[in-house]
Amino acid sequence: MARKKKETPEYIAMRDLALEQLKSGKSLTGKGGIFEPIIKEFLESALEAEMDAHLDEDERSQGNKRNGKGIKTLKTSAGEVTIEPPYDRQGNFEPDIVKKRQTVLADNLAPKIISLYGKGMSLRDIAIYIEDMYDMEVSANILSEITDRVIPKVKEWQSRALDDVYPIVWMDAMHYKVKDQGRVVSRAVYNILAINKDGKKELIGMYISESEGANFWLSVLTDLKNRGVKDILIACTDNLTGFSKAILSIFPETEIQKCIVHQIRNSLKYVASKDQKAFMKDLKNVYRSATKSEAETELLNLDEIWGKKYPVVLRSWNDNWEELSAYFKYDEPIRKIIYTTNAVEGFHRQVRKVTKTKGAFTSDMALLKLIYLATENISKKWTQPVHNWGLTAQQFAIHFEGRFNLNL
Predict the structure, then answer these.
(1) Dihedral Cα 304, 306, 307, 312, nearest 10 deg
(2) Helix (H) or strand (E) holding 192
């Protein structure tokens, strides 16, 4: 038979007080709530046990011993709790359950605070939420310290080891404002979204720089290689000058597919508004062709119709044609994946939903911290392979024989 636990006078008093508060409709949390003395008793008992363990034979042999108690007020999910932590004479006691300078007992609140921050809530809004839900005030500085717990994870994530081969990679940058030494400056966040060998999306890199350029992309690609990437089969990029050279200098066998949508946008900048509708009708015949040969015939027709009026536009299509037309060698499912950078731009739109209310970030790390948290939430949906990955993987195994192997 199970032995009944002995009910101490203290236990009986707390139980009766809790029942009385419940019957009267009073909260168990907050100042005067029943949880306050329970948490106080637990914390003080734990701290006393930690002090006993700290003052072992070695410490005592060096003259260290207890040196009274202090007073500390902690903010907890049950309200404010005032405890009396023990001190040692030499001041080298470092408790684990309540750190020396800790003012918020937030082991249960920290994940909630970080989650709210990662969904785009401002520190002010989080403070209001915590006060409404838990009847406790938390300053913006304390909330910032709690969200800063993510920083080691960000750095670890940025330097983690990667797969040796990625079939498809999209590369693009986002632009933000950041405060730097009293000034508001521009920053480019370089993101590398990939399809891994299992057909699942994965953000394999996130970097920050003062501006977007091929030179910085070169350092990004070098970092990917240093983290274990040996090969990228297809890289989908915008039309940034020097981008292709940067990629091929690190991964010389990679196929480059420049984004058709970016090329169209750039072309229309130099086409008169009265001609844009007719120009686009003829241009669609090029990039919507069934084969590369047919597309090249349509490109010649486009040149004949519009080349004299818009020579710079047609020259751009011809100069970039090989990297604009790489997708023609694949069937429709693969074409839809690679002929634009829509995948990474879609990811960026999701990130901007979280960052749009922030204005200028206080630092580069504050920016990276929020994008990392947003990415954690977004990537929870990346659990399934992209559509028709089984067939796509088989085609890649044939097109890139020796470079991409099926996991059979």
Answers:
(1) -160
(2) strand 183-195
Q: CB of 255 within 8 A of CB of 322?
A: no
Longest dimension (CA), the chain: 99
Q: What integer pLDDT is reported at residue 269 of this predicted model?
A: 94
Query: What's the gap between Cα 95 and its chain centre?
Result: 32
Q: Output the six-digit token pair for 368.
A: 């990276």
pTM: 0.74
Q: Give the confidence band of 273 by pLDDT, cuts at 50, 70, 90.
A: very high
CA atoms within 13 A on the CB side of 236: 25
Cα angle: 329, vertex 330, 336; to 5 degrees? 125
For the chain, domain boundaries: 9-151, 173-399
The rounded distance, in Å, linking the Cα atoms of 393 and 407 is 10
Pick from 360, 186, 160, 328: nearest CA to 255: 328
> What SS3 class is residue 170?
strand
How many CB atoms are closer than 10 A to CB 230? 13
Region 358-375 average pLDDT: 92
3-state secondary structure of 119: coil
pLDDT value for 34: 57
Chain segment 64-97, per-residue pLDDT in tens? 999 999 898 877 666 678 888 899 999 999 887 7
